[in-house]
Fold:
Amino acid sequence: MRTVTLYVRPGCHLCDDARAALLRVRVTHPFALEEVDVECDDELLLRYLERIPVVALDGQELFDFFVDEEALRATL
Structure:
């Protein structure tokens, strides 16, 4: 099963929107969903702070700020 990782931080409304989009896609295109709080790791915070949410599929970054649901479906 493929893994989608969502890099987030608390209180981020764009992160909430991205999570909702991923859950919609997962209904028809199953994948494991991992959520990572970038504030728990200084390296991740520096890497992602200015562009969260970030979505990665099996380690490859696909989207910043928003999820293109059709593109994700096509990639899965």
